[in-house]
Amino acid sequence: IEYAEVLAEGKSALAQAMTSVLMGDYVSYYAALLNGVDPTPTTDIDSLKAWLARQK
Question: Is 35 strand, coil or helix?
C-alpha cells in the first residue's frame, strides 16, 4: 500500500491537531469522489445535532 507521510503544521499542539483533522477531511472527501460516493451526506452528524438539541 502506498502512502504519504504528512507532518502537521502549527505552532501549538492544538494547531497541529486541527491541521491534521483538516487534512483527514480533505483526504476522505476526495477518496469518496474518486470511488463514486457522494461525500455530502452527514447522517451521523445530523443525528448528533438532533441529540444535542434535545439535551437543552
Answer: coil
